[in-house]
Amino acid sequence: MEVEAQTSAAAAAAGDELRSLLSATLSPDKAAVDAATEGLSRIAAASDPRFPISLLAVAAADGDQGTKVAAATYLKNYTRRNIDWGLSSPELYKEFRDRLAQALLQVEPFLLRVLIEVFRQVIEKDFVKENLWPELVPQLKQVIHSSNIISPGQHPEWNTINALRVLQSVVRPFQYFLNPKVAKEPVPPQLEQIASEILVPLQVTFHHIADKVLLSRDETNLEYEQLLLITSKCMYFTVRSYMPSRVKQILPSFCKDMFRILESLDFNSQYEDGATTRLKTAKRCLIILCTLVTRHRKHADDQMAHIVNSATRISSQSIHLHKLDPLSDRIISLSFDVISRVLETGPGWRLVSPHFSSLLDSAIFPALALNGKDITEWEDDTDEYMRKNLPCELDDISGWAEDLFTARKSAINLLGVIALSKGPPVVSAASKRKKGDKSKGKGERSSIGELLVIPFLSKFPIPPQGEDVSSKAVQNYFGVLMAFGGLQDFLTEKKDLTNTIIRNRILPLYSLDPCSPYLISAANWIIGQLALCLPEAMSTNIYHSLMKALTMEDFDELSCYPVRASASGAITELIENGYAPPDWLVLLQVVMKRISVEDENESTLLFQLLGTIIESGQEKVMPHIPEIVSNIANTIMKLLPPVPDPWPQAVERGFAALVSMAQAWESSAPDENKDIEMRVWQSGQFAMAQTFSHVLQKAWLLPVEQMGLSVCSSLPPLSCVNDASILLEFIMRSITSMEETASMKVFELVAIWADIIACWDSWEEMEDQGIFNTIKEAVNFHQNFDSNGFFLKILPSRSENSSQSSVISWLSSFITRAIEAYPSATWRACSCMHTLLHTPNFSHGAEDTRMTLAVSFAQAAFSRFKSVSDSPSGIWKPLILVISSCYICYPDAIEQVLRKYDSNGYAIWASALAQISSSSFNPGLSSESEIKLAVLTLATVIEHLLALSMGGTKLLHDCCVSLMESCIHLKEVQEDGDDGDGAEDLDDDDDDEEEEDTDEDDEDYNQDSDDDDVREETEEEFLQRYAAAAGGESIEIVEDGDIDDETQDIELGSLDEMDVQQVVLSMMKIRPDLIRAQTFPDGLMERMAETFPEYEQLFHVHRQA
């Protein structure tokens, strides 16, 4: 008894301490908060298995709200970091799990939101993945049935809303396929059990509560509304991917209740706060209907007509959009999406076509027309106006489009789908067939765009000159322009109609005086949307109209930024689609004049346009690049924040523009024999390098110098690292003397750049490539200009987490982490490893640094290799060759590294080296440097294996065979050179001809099948395509990595000067028994003798053996 009392007292004391520490984390005193946080970390680090239970006890017990939330939050973070903490004590983990589930049924809403996240982690692991909680569903069923709303009086402590929140967390993981690579994945048994035991009975409750809510004229019952909302969410998660068998049975009843809920909506009246939950339920119902139409057609066919009627009724409420809140707007948006999805199904046209006219007149067009909310949004937030009304993501008009979110975007999408729909057959007198013609009676099927949409839009004329934005004519014509923007797919097929619309309905707007900015911005947007099918004859008129819009100044109190921004985007689209402005210089001057520090958003868009001009203009704009670079640099330096805060988007786009100009300038380098042109080009290159240096100094060096020593521990922001790296590469490549190095502060820039990338962890393929190239250029710069060994000196780091290091070590840190990032990063990192290992001048007493690099490279490469070693793949090659490079330099140290990682590590690596060097491996070694490194390493490995008395092993045999094959391959590569280029050109010509033939065949096929109905994709086909796509994601990533840089000319340094043939020949002469003891594949020794006459005697020795 005394022992139990002492234990109980100790537990109470521990609980009091925990409660006190959690309470202290809420203190306004920073010192107290830090001390409490340290105390909690100490308790957590003690690995007490009861710690999570203690946190839960504090959260669920009586006490002040702040402490309870602190306990719940700490528990959430603790379990997230220590997901396997329960493995050490399964009994305590089960106790914690049960207590957590019990607490969730009773806690207040503010705690439920936090603790439910802890519960999701448990559900994901125990119930979904491992299916180790068989009692969960029966217990949850009992709790829901006995809870306070469903069965009042039985268990008042069990809160129905809380219980349904728990159910929502249980079904939430099943909204996605658990095994997406399986084409016809069966419904998981856990979900079938939930549907059978909980969802089916819950449908009765849902219907009963819906009756109460919809028939009651009293004030809103929030608990009932929440029950409907949460149940709808549970149903959505259940059917989003799967369709449990018992859900099929209750689907008709559930759909009827959803239709009743949707019918109860009235957007003409203002909703009170309590009724917002009803809107959320309606939104969820519409999302479920979208899912049923998209994923479960055969189970929803009986409801399709009701779905159309319900969605059509809601869409007609778009006349009230000007006064609706975002949630109501989203509901109308979803109603349009439902109709779009139905139109993409087999019976869709038959069900929706009777509503086409009313939809267009009463739903779609009112959503497109300009309203007071748009005008207010233009005045208050132009970016938000453009996001909603000039969308750039409408490139793919489809019934399956997702994430449109606003009623206007969804209406535009639906209009596009309707326009592309085929109408009934139309037989004209001119097309009547002769008697007996089998095609008689089969008229052409015109699209609804021709029959209905275009005639409807033609009813609205261009507004008279001087009309105010409040006039109905302007507002309606804005809707017409929005509609044209959604008809891009339809108009692409109707060239004459497109010409007419541009000539008669778009271009005249630019001649109005004054121009309506609302209409002009929309017109610009349409031109951008239709850039692919614009009439070439009108291109010049279109371009001049856009230039007029690009230079439109603000009115007295109205910003014309959306006009200029949409014009910038449209001009970009024109140029990218092949249009060449009549005067590139004038366009450049206009863009440069508009780029300013007053409006960062506008500068951001213009920088993007400028990049397009540089890339497309080429020789037309090339002479002006140095001056443009100087002007942009001045703007960027004004926009740079004075302290190392994240850079604004305008600065990031400005850096991207500088990069495009740097790359364009380098690609324009004249031939070396053109002295005058070369001197002009070099002068421009030097001027640009100086400008880039000033920008990087302002971005990286000056902030710290200006702020003094207090921020020396802070690195500049990790913004534009890839673009800045490319500019630094340009600077280093431009340097021709030590004086230029000093004036441009290249060493200082390289040092802080290396420090920055050593901390890089935002891996993204398109964002990292410039860094790898700059690393190689930095090593080249070190060779040419670093006579004092600056790259190897120990320098202070500005990173808070790094100690002193050298430039070489910082670069090493980046590439050893990059090797794990993604496949193409592995290739690039390995290439850089060869460069860092063999190129730098390590004569400054820094040979230890080189060994450290070799060891770290080998560790990183072998670790990555082990992670992909299950089956041979292309990614093996760079990894194995990097280890080979390290091994050639320091055999003993690297062998130790390999054996430390894996006791059989050396043999694993040597065997893999033999594999990638063999003629059967694909992709095999291809460049001379790769093969040379493999031969040298194989020879060294063979010597080592013989020294270890491993003469009769399979490993030695494989190495010998690969050595012979590699020697032959190396000789062939050295002799072939570039002899195959001509043949490749001929092959390319054949491919081109074949491609042209294929294109013609495709065109003929398309013409023949234009009038055929498009066969609808079946559910089984959808699932197979889905599984193939899911399975292809990981495969595609690996393949991309295999293809990228497949042929590498790796840097070998002094190893490249070795006579490889002599090395191998000497080894064979010294060890004649080596050849005699091996059984080589048929013909291999004959090929060796033919390739190397010096080996003839050795061949005879082998044949005699």
Automatic annotation (TrEMBL):
Gene Ontology CC: one annotated term: nuclear envelope
| Listed Acidic residues bias regions | 975-1020
Biological process according to GO: protein export from nucleus; protein import into nucleus
In its UniProt record, a GO molecular function of this protein is: nuclear export signal receptor activity
Q: Which InterPro entries match?
A: ARM-like (IPR011989), ARM-type_fold (IPR016024)
- Residue ranges for the region (Disordered) are 974-1020
PANTHER family in the cross-refs = ARM REPEAT SUPERFAMILY PROTEIN, IMPORTIN-7, 8, 11
Q: Can you name this protein?
A: Protein transporter-like
